[in-house]
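Write out this protein's structure.
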Amino acid sequence: MNAIENAPTQKAAIPATPRILIVDDEQPMQVLASSIVKKIGYEPQAVDSGEAAVEAVRSSKEKGSPYAVVVMDLALPGGMSGLEATIAIKQIDADAKVIVCSGYLEQNARSAALEHGFAGILPKPYTADRLTSELRHVLK
């Protein structure tokens, strides 16, 4: 009976609108991705560094409303790389779904990305349809 009583409480912690964290050091990419995410009915938040991404994930997890997906640029200059940030995020939330995003991904990089703990892959430059497709695939 305890499990049944607790089930609604657990479901209530999941936001009705999936929250997507976009991590990119380029403001135009943040704006583009955020507008696409918003247009398809999700709630975007954008940050420009790996450190900010880790803090955003930590804060949202502590508040009980974790991000549904993190779209992580691998090339984040001057600080924590996208890979380092993803490792830190996975330490905070082992179930975090992170889509790797980079202009340096090869066509056949999906299996390597999955082996490194990424939930999906998004080569740059990407289209609205490609981002939408990858988000929906990861959220299934």
